[in-house]
Write a structure and sequence with these properties.
three-stranded antiparallel β-sheet; 7 helices; single chain; alpha+beta; 355 residues
Length: 355
């Protein structure tokens, strides 16, 4: 222990500083500067482990050995430093370990002496509770905390007794095992029956649900197919209507073209008719004009013949009139006098005969 200077401690160490024999400062992992008039104690607060081994005669006068371990640590340093000397770093921990080991082994011997071998083997929890109760007063006084106590092994010292106990236990275990096996087999058989029934029921339910699902799917498929047929029929109807509308439009166009053609033909016929009418009128006019001209020429000739006949005699009239009539190529002339027409025919015949 330093008289003067800086003292450095581990983070897990607990420091108690004293002046005049009284604590004036304490803390965990506290570095400090010390002087000769001060005292300090450093206590480790980490967990320590002890192992114990106790042999004792049971209530049946049979030797039993119990082994195990315990974990402890300093819980109240202000109490612990008063009961142990911590001037050396590890000596106080070893001292506490030895004290606790002695207390635990003594408590185990006390418990085993009042128990049968079977209780020692089967009631380890009872022994552990008794150990904790025995250590409760000491741990409170010393300022330490018992973290856990465990019994690792319980050993029967007499090998023959251990063998006999094992045989008895083996027979009992075998009997219990066989009984348990029979019971288990029976339970398994019953469970298998129940399980098979449940499986059959589940399979039936699954089949029913599958059938219902199939029916629903078939119904949906039929509805969809029906909708498809309806849509196709509607589409076909629309296509037919469109085709009819196209045919009607083509028919109307064709009729319109025919009508226009007919009207054009009518216009053509009308024009041709008008042209024909005009042509006929023209021809009629020409014919009438020719006839009027011929009549005028005949009248003129008649007047001329009458004058020539009067002057030169009948022969000249006959001869010239017949020639003129032959040149005119007129079969019949209406001059308004029967005798004169007869005369003209006669003259024409005579002229044709002479020539």
């Amino acid at each position: 222990m330093k008289n003067i200077g800086i003292v450095r401690v581990n983070p897990s160490d607990y420091v108690i500083r004293l002046r005049g024999g009284k604590i004036y400062k304490q803390g965990l992992g506290m570095n400090f500067f010390t002087i000769p008039s001060e005292q300090y104690v450093i206590l480790p607060t980490t967990v320590s482990k002890i192992q114990f081994l106790a042999d004792q005669i049971s209530r049946e006068n049979q030797g039993v050995e119990v082994s195990g371990f315990a974990f402890w640590k300093i819980g109240d340093p202000s109490k612990t430093y008063l009961h142990f000397d911590f001037s050396a770093s590890l000596a106080p921990v070893e001292t506490i370990n030895n004290y606790l080991k002695d207390v635990v082994e003594s408590a185990i011997r006390h418990q085993v002496a009042n128990m049968t071998i079977d209780e020692v083997l089967r009631k380890r929890g009872t022994i552990i509770l008794a150990l904790k109760k025995e250590l409760e007063y000491i741990s409170t006084e010393w300022g330490i905390a018992i973290e856990t106590i465990e019994i690792k092994n319980v050993k029967i010292m007499s090998s023959q007794l251990f063998h006999n106990m094992q045989a008895r236990f083996r027979d009992q275990i075998r009997l219990e095992s066989e009984t348990s096996a029979l019971k288990t087999n029976q339970e398994i058989a019953e469970q298998n029956i129940i399980h098979n029934e449940q499986i059959a029921l589940l399979e039936q339910e699954a089949k029913t649900k599958d059938l219902e699902r199939r029916n629903v799917l078939d119904k949906i498929a039929l509805e969809k197919q029906s909708e498809i047929y309806k849509l196709r029929a509607k589409e076909q109807q629309q296509q037919n209507l469109l085709a009819k509308a196209n045919d009607l439009e083509l028919f109307e166009i064709e009729q319109l073209n025919k009508r226009q053609k007919y009207l054009a033909e009518l216009d053509t016929l009308e024009n041709e008719k008008k042209l024909l009418t005009k042509r006929m009128e023209m021809e009629a006019l020409v014919a009438k004009s020719s006839q009027d001209k011929a009549l005028l020429e005949i009248v003129t000739l008649k007047e001329k013949l009458l004058v020539e006949n009067t002057e030169k005699g009948e022969h000249i009239l006959y001869k010239n009139l017949a020639q003129i009539l032959s040149q005119l190529n007129i079969n019949e002339i209406n001059i308004g006098h029967t005798e004169l027409q007869a005369l003209l025919k006669q003259l024409k015949g005579s002229w044709n005969k002479d020539n």
